[in-house]
Amino acid sequence: QLQLVESGGGLVQPGGSLRLSCTASGDALDSYAIGWFRQAPGKEREGVSCIRKSGITQDYVESVKGRFTITRDNAKNAVYIQMNMLKPEDTAIYYCAAFQSSYSICSPYTYKYSYWGQGTQVTVSS
Hints:
Blueprint: E1 3-7, E2 10-12, E3 18-25, E4 32-39, E5 46-51, E6 57-59, E7 68-73, E8 78-83, E9 92-100, E10 115-116, E11 120-124
């Protein structure tokens, strides 16, 4: 059974950077699509970015394009999201999630993902 653990969240000032890590155990991540989601207080969970088995990435939130970068390191069984030029509206709990498919695809929809981490809090505030 795949297990995911996020880390790297915290408090950062506007304009700052954070790198979140999603570390897997129980199975190899290279056969999964990995998505990063976030949920702000009072809002629904939204898909932020995804990386396919092939390594192709997709961003689903217009406001993060050019600021967030998702990467994977199969040797370390981990996926990362580098977040630069952070804004207060990026404040949320960030989750990584995984699903398997015969195809190298991605999805912004929570229902596609079978495995979830516990989340890590990101707060952007001065």
